[in-house]
Amino acid sequence: MSTIPAEYKYSSEHEWVSPAVDGVVTVGITDHAQAELGEVVYVDLPAVGDTCAAGDNVAAVESTKAASDVYTPVSGEIVEVNEALDAEPNTVNADANGAGWIFKVRLSDPTELDGLMDAAAYEEFCKG
């Protein structure tokens, strides 16, 4: 089974959300998602300053097998993107839950985090 950090929240689209720090969360795709995609060769990052609503398609990850949209599990403003992925997109494969993060969002509605899955629920979700 893939790595599922207990401190993160998870979406049904296989994104993870870190705990909020000063109202900002980090978002990436899960280890399960990167394993399904295969070797990541390109990440289309959102623009800093863009506003998004939970469920919006804000980024994309392309691999040798497929392209997959990345949806934001929370609403707010994109405040940072992981520009290191431009040069090293396969960081998403090597460390999906850490250095392979995709973007950071300043939350407009922190209660949206309550609607996401915890690690145990996400693990069950992945089992189908």
Provide structural commentary:
This protein has a single domain (9-123), classed as RNA polymerase II/Efflux pump adaptor protein, barrel-sandwich hybrid domain (OB fold (Dihydrolipoamide Acetyltransferase, E2P), Beta Barrel). The chain has 4 helices and 9 strands; from the N terminus they run E-E-E-H-E-E-E-E-E-H-H-E-H. It has helices at 31-37, 84-87, 91-94, 119-127, and strands at residues 9-10, 15-17, 24-29, 40-44, 51-52, 57-63, 67-71, 76-81, 103-107. The two termini are 13 Å apart. The mean pLDDT is 97. Residues 24-106 form the Lipoyl-binding domain. It comes from Candidatus Akkermansia intestinigallinarum.
Based on CA inertia axes, which overall geometry fits?
A: globular
SSE sequence, one letter per element: EEEHEEEEEHHEH
Alpha-carbon distance between the two ends: 13 Å
Biggest sheet, strands in spatial order?
1-2-3-9-8-5
Please give the count of helices. Answer: 4
Task: Give the CATH architecture.
Answer: Beta Barrel
The level-1 CATH class: Mainly Beta
Using the CA coordinates, give the radius of gyration.
Answer: 13 Å
Uncertain regions: pLDDT < 50 for 5+ in a row? none
Helix and strand composition category: alpha+beta
User: How many beta-strand runs?
Assistant: 9
- The number of distinct structural domains comes to 1
